């Protein structure tokens, strides 16, 4: 159904996103050949066994030498060094892209490392799961999701078009915006929620009067929802917070102000104000379901997952 | 498979929990007759049509007059008044129980309203979905979940045993603890998470630089997880925060302290401390899955729900 967009693709970084890309390229016939590389020898060995690439290269230079597309899909703190390591081995006419959750900081580092004539298309698929590593990837990960592209001075129109075609072929919708705007939008829709989830899970784990076993047993009351994103890859998230510091601190400040207001409503028993807030937030959920970004099934459809997998059941 | 535990059951409050109880009692043959009542005329009419009760009574007094079990399943702010309204109509030997998310405040109000000789078993099923109203109920809601019972001075051993049998028959595990401990445990595992979710959804909705449509489109980055519990019933949650004020304020204080520490880690770029926290929180998720309180499927099994229902797809 799809057609080839690239001949030789190199994917550097074979975690959830890199391995899903490799699966997707193969499933949809979008490249002739995919070469993978990962900085971890252990991950390279696991990827070799999983065989979602045609070849696993031993060095970054080797992985890119024939590539007409290079995808940088490591934690954003490592992207600059990765770009440095391949700069001398790139073929003329190659397109380099990335999938990092932060754009401004990554663009600065990658463009300082790459030769000026290399086309770079900064990108970010809004897709993933709480699982990580090469075993976690699957080809349909990007279907029905958004991919954001944030062109820079080094992004040619032709390269932007090809990367846009690639994400469309993988099943995503594509939106283009400035790197700065991306970093603020994602601080709102992704970075702050993750930080809050990590924090609340930490707070609950530290309660002396409530045992760990009680937190786990009675988590269906709401807490377990937070644990999913708090189970996401620690290194990836550390790097995101360090590389999108200003936008995250700005959002944290707003969140804390709002929380102080809610705390005051409770202390002074302002039931009307609480009910107003809780009524307003319901409408947002409705919008997300209508936009096709969420299932309408109660409780994320956990019951369906349960009966298929023999896992657990439902609740708010 | 199950056997009758009660003859005549009255359920006051026909929202998600009340209607699910009625379904469960009928599906499993646990009562001869179920009479329902709701303070809202509109809800009574809808419940009449849905026909999950044998009868919908026109007044609270009528609903309880033949009952050997009365279940109070309204928002906790209304439970005291409901107990008052039925106090004069109760049959000798009746057991009264409730399903409220707060126990200490409810016990005080209910016991002030009921005659001293009536057995009261304060209870709380840790079950629900983000949907509310009589249409949202289903009989398997309590399967695989925990029901907490918090006996008071008015709880006889015989009544405690029968209510415990009831929850077991509905598929739940039962745990007994003091009302005060319940209120602290639930402040941790349920009330604080809901408050944080309501708050973050409000904060995101108020961002001037990020449009509502962007928040919705890119919500798969993490935000949409929070919107599920922030879509829960506003009145029920208002009442919980007002009736469990001290424990919730205590947890909010701890959460805010921890968040200030995380904010400082980001400002001073303490990557090691961030990574330590994020690594620690992963283990809690694992515990919840192993305890059977959560599905192991990535992303809550949203993809399964999607393919069944034609809703949305996956992501972290």
UniProtKB/TrEMBL annotation, chains A, B:
SUPFAM superfamilies: 6-phosphogluconate dehydrogenase C-terminal domain-like, NAD(P)-binding Rossmann-fold domains. Coiled coil: none annotated. Keywords: Oxidoreductase. InterPro entries: 6-PGluconate_DH-like_C_sf, NAD(P)-bd_dom_sf, PDH_C, PDH_N, Preph/Arog_dehydrog, Prephen_DH. Residues 7-296 form the Prephenate/arogenate dehydrogenase domain. It holds the Pfam family PDH_N. Residues 299-316 have a biased composition (Basic and acidic residues). This is Prephenate/arogenate dehydrogenase family protein. It comes from Methyloligella solikamskensis. Residues 293-316 are annotated as: Disordered.
């Amino acid at each position: 159904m799809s057609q080839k967009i690239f001949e030789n693709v190199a994917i550097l970084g074979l975690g959830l996103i890199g391995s899903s890309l490799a699966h997707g390229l193969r499933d949809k016939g979008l490249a002739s050949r995919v070469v993978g590389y990962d900085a971890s020898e252990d991950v390279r060995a696991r990827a070799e066994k999983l065989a979602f690439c045609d070849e696993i290269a031993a060095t970054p230079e080797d992985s890119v030498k024939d590539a007409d597309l290079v995808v940088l899909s490591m934690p954003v703190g490592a992207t600059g060094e990765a770009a440095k390591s391949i700069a001398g081995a790139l073929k003329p006419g190659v397109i380099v892209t990335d999938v990092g959750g932060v754009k401004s900081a990554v663009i600065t580092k990658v463009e300082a490392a790459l030769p000026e004539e290399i086309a770079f298309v900064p990108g970010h698929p809004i897709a993933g799961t709480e699982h990580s590593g090469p075993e976690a990837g699957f080809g349909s990960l990007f279907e029905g999701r958004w991919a954001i592209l944030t062109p820079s001075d080094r992004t040619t129109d032709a390269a932007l078009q090809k990367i846009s075609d690639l994400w469309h072929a993988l099943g995503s919708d594509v939106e283009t915006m400035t790197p700065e705007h991306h970093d603020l939008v994602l601080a709102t829709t992704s970075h702050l929620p993750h930080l809050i989830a990590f924090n609340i899970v930490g707070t609950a784990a530290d309660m002396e009067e409530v045992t760990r076993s009680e937190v786990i047993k009675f988590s269906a009351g709401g807490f377990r929802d937070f644990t999913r994103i708090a189970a996401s890859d620690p290194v990836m998230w550390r790097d995101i917070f360090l590389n999108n510091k200003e936008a995250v601190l700005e959002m944290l400040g707003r969140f804390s102000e709002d929380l102080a207001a809610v705390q005051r409503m409770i202390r002074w028993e302002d039931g009307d104000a609480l009910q107003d807030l809780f009524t307003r937030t319901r409408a947002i959920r409705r919008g997300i379901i209508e936009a096709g970004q969420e299932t309408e099934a109660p409780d994320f459809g956990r019951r369906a997952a349960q009966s298929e997998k023999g896992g657990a059941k439902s609740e708010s």
